[in-house]
Amino acid sequence: MASYPSTPSSTYAPTEPWVEYPESDGKPMAESEQHRDALILALQTLIPHFEKVPDVCVSGNLMMYYVEGDPRYYISPDVFVTFGVERKKRRFYKFWEEGKPPDFVLELSGEQTFRHDLHGQKALYTLLGVPEYFLYDVDMQYLPSPLMGFRLVSGAYVPIAARADGSVPSATLGLDLHVRDRGLWFYDPIAQMWLPTPAERLDAAEQRADAEKQRAEDAEKQRADAAEAEVARLREELERLKARI
């Protein structure tokens, strides 16, 4: 979501020396429960994928201010990724402090937002210089295509061509975005694997824990068997010594 006057001005000077930047615009997090779930799932999928990158911010539904001193100029992308910035928890995102706009923005479009996402929002992200802008139609009925991607080229957004399988590649993320099973999925073409969902990561963690427990039990049994075999050998040796006496 975004709220901004019609003509932004970077020369705006606040009338008070201290300017308050709200952490929320008071609007709902998402248009519907389906949009909310899709937003949370996207974040819970992308955040672990980039957890080893030291200078990245993966977040969403966060207030972003892009004109210093004027809190009227803000956006709040559903999902965004910015590389080359400090990894930390943020109350909000200020362009002039971070030094750059997001590198990737994903908006979850619906009946109430798809027109704005395709036009006003797209124009604003162009103006702000966001390299990649993606739209996902959660309801599969409002956008021209359920998944659309745009890449900034010479100051204008150019549609990103879909692959033969219908996926749309994000050069910024190094991932392919897919719509399957009426959901948004991320695929790593280098690792040739789907990014796991939280449920899949939990299942994998439980399997690793079970495997580690089994390995520990097997190792303990091997040690016990070896100790028992050594005891048996020593008894046999003792019996042989007794027989010689």
Secondary-structure topology with pairs:
Elements: E1 2-3, H1 33-49, E2 56-59, E3 64-65, E4 74-75, E5 79-83, E6 93-94, H2 95-98, E7 104-109, H3 114-118, H4 120-128, E8 132-137, E9 147-153, E10 156-159, E11 168-170, E12 175-180, E13 183-188, E14 193-194, H5 198-244
Parallel strand pairs: 3-6, 7-8
Antiparallel strand pairs: 1-4, 2-5, 3-4, 5-7, 8-9, 9-10, 11-12, 12-13, 13-14
Notes on the structure:
This protein folds into two domains: 2-195, tt1808, chain A (Alpha-Beta Complex); 196-245. The protein is α+β, with helices and mostly antiparallel strands. The longest helix has 47 residues, at 198-244. The chain has five helices and 14 strands. It starts with a strand and ends with a helix.
Descriptive key words:
four-stranded mixed β-sheet, alpha+beta, elongated, tt1808, chain A, 14 strands, 2 domains, disordered N terminus, 5 helices, 245 residues, six-stranded mixed β-sheet
Question: Would you summarize the structure shown here?
Answer:
The chain is of the alpha+beta class. The chain is built from 5 helices and 14 strands. It is 33% helix and 23% strand.
Q: What would you report as the Rg, rounded to the nearest angstrom?
A: 28 Å
CATH architecture of the largest domain: Alpha-Beta Complex
- Look at the structure and give the CATH class of the largest domain: Alpha Beta
In total, the number of strands is: 14
Count, helices: 5
* Unreliable runs: 3-7, 9-16
Strand order of the largest sheet: 2-5-7-8-9-10
In the CATH hierarchy, the third-tier topology of the largest domain is known as tt1808, chain A
Please summarize the sheet with the most strands: 6 strands, mixed
Count the domains.
2
Give helix and strand order, one letter per element, not per position: EHEEEEEHEHHEEEEEEEH
CATH superfamily of the largest domain: tt1808, chain A
**Which class of secondary structure composition applies to the elements?**
alpha+beta
Terminal Cα separation, in Å?
95 Å
Helix content: 25-40%
